[in-house]
């Protein structure tokens, strides 16, 4: 028991993904990563959709936070970026119109995220 309690949370998270999907996020293909994201979100992960970064400084602070995360810390990436599986706000902002969205690859090309994304999803790093 003590061994489990002492386990590095990153190692434990990585092992959870491997047990469930056969692979860690850093080595997962597009379809598997997409499934991991959908599972985390539909199982109730609460992400920080707010506050929306109104200034470059606020935007940069979120990027800084993301940069410190390991590629296998998928849960934290989603939380910090404020990831949602639906459009957001009065303007119904979504990945489809975001400058980082690669339409044909269905991919978020923001280097600090670098994850599969769907046109109707959104995160608070949305930019046009
Ligand atoms: S930065 Fe956010 S809104 Fe833009 S494509 Fe990536 S996940 Fe979607």
Tell me about this structure.
This protein has helices at residues 2-6, 9-21, 30-42, 56-67, 74-81, and strands at residues 101-102, 107-108, 115-116. It has 128 residues and is mainly α. A hairpin with a 4-residue loop joins β1 and β2 (107-108). α4 (56-67) runs antiparallel to α5. It is globular. The N and C termini lie far apart (49 Å). Residues 95, 98, 100-101, 108, 110, 113, 117, 121-123, 125-126 line the site of iron/sulfur cluster (SF4).
Write the layout of secondary structure elements.
Elements: H1 2-6, H2 9-21, H3 30-42, H4 56-67, H5 74-81, E1 101-102, E2 107-108, E3 115-116
Antiparallel strand pairs: 1-2, 2-3
Residues 95, 98, 100-101, 108, 110, 113, 117, 121-123, 125-126 line the site of iron/sulfur cluster.
Beta-strand portion reads under 5%
The low-confidence runs, each spanning 5 or more residues with pLDDT under 50, are: none
Count of helical stretches: 5
Biggest beta sheet attributes: 3 strands, antiparallel
Order of helical and strand elements? HHHHHEEE
Which structural category do the helix and sheet elements fall into? mainly alpha
Distance between the termini: 49 Å
The averaged pLDDT comes out at 95
Question: Reading side by side through the largest sheet, how are the strands ordered?
Answer: 1-2-3
Described by the principal axes of the CA atoms, the overall outline is: globular
Q: What is the number of independent domains?
A: 1
The count of strands amounts to 3
Small-molecule components bound: iron/sulfur cluster
